[in-house]
Amino acid sequence: MKIQHEQLLLETAAAKVTYLNMTDQIKEVIEKAGIKDGLCTITTPHTTCSVVFEEYVHDVDWKGDEFLHVDQNRILDKIIPRQLTESDYLYPGPKHVEFLVELAAEDPSYEADPVTILNADAHIKGSLFGASETIIIKDGVPQIGSVGYLYFIDWDQNRERTRKCNLLLMGE
Fold it and tell me: In this record, what's one Pfam family (predicted)?
């Protein structure tokens, strides 16, 4: 049995929920790995992001967002509104803010701006949609059907970032 780890780096936008179609990238990784029969698990280590499997929609709005994603965001905004002030949600509490300030002092790549942690909505959406998907590989082809696609979603709209997506391929 062969086991291989890969990582995708994905650029996300500020001021909107970012959906990134990573289907072709995953197919390419599977092909390069030479796995004919097995599994590919796709995960994100970010608590405000999700990995989802859903239908590809050919229609997009004037901003280039697929209609299904626009519909999904409209529904979610009604039940989990965006956090714009510290009083919109209990998160982040004072102990967590203290922890994050200390983290920013230790890790220069971590954003120290307190406004960027006003993202309770992104954490809730990330929890609801989950951080991973696993797909079957048969005869070197991911078994995702003709309209099934794999998307990375960054729910956090506070800033653009480079996000990570980890892949674990297992098989023969």
Answer: YjbQ
